[in-house]
Amino acid sequence: xxxxxxxxxxxxxxxxxxxxxxxxxxxxxxxxxxxxxxxxxxxxxxxxxxxxxxxxxxxxxxxxxxxxxxxxxxxxxxxxxxxxxxxxxxxxxxxxxxxxxxxxxxxxxxxxxxxxxxxxxxxxxxxxxxxxxxxxxxxxxxxxxxxxxxxxxxxxxxxxxxxxxxxxxxxxxxxxxxxxxxxxxxxxxxxxxxxxxxxxxx
Length: 202
Description:
Layout: E1 25-31, E2 36-41, E3 59-63, E4 71-76, E5 99-102, E6 105-109, E7 115-119, E8 127-132, E9 156-162, E10 165-170, E11 174-180, E12 199-201
Antiparallel strand pairs: 1-2, 2-3, 3-4, 5-6, 6-7, 7-8, 9-10, 10-11, 11-12
């Protein structure tokens, strides 16, 4: 939208969601400098009455350098989330949600798939660098129940990156603060258990 005149917003580009999805284009990130556009689709009931998608909501990356011709360049989804593996996990909610991008590194929350850290230096080939999934915990309010019927699972909602720290909100277990630590070419000290997958829990 062109908001030059806030009282009269004007559509300058439209990216259709397309078939095979529930249609919940939930979160968008746009970097005007590079033209990178990220769309997170949220699906909470894959294959349900309101969904035509065989799997959970995933992420789509676009080249929006020319807003008159927005081009899809890639999709990203942690293993098992998009229905292509033949098995759709139902012990939680495995959909894309919120996203932050800092210096070409994406930090995206994925509900029960926790936090995923993704290298976007080449947007056509997003590469996962690390992940952090909080321990399974039941909703203290008793609201969330997984499609499989279990009540204990991670449910990572929001993400904010400040000063090298990544703040995560899990609706079941609360606030988590982690740091992405790039792998060293030749480690000289043993890696501690809480530094697995390149992330340190606080």
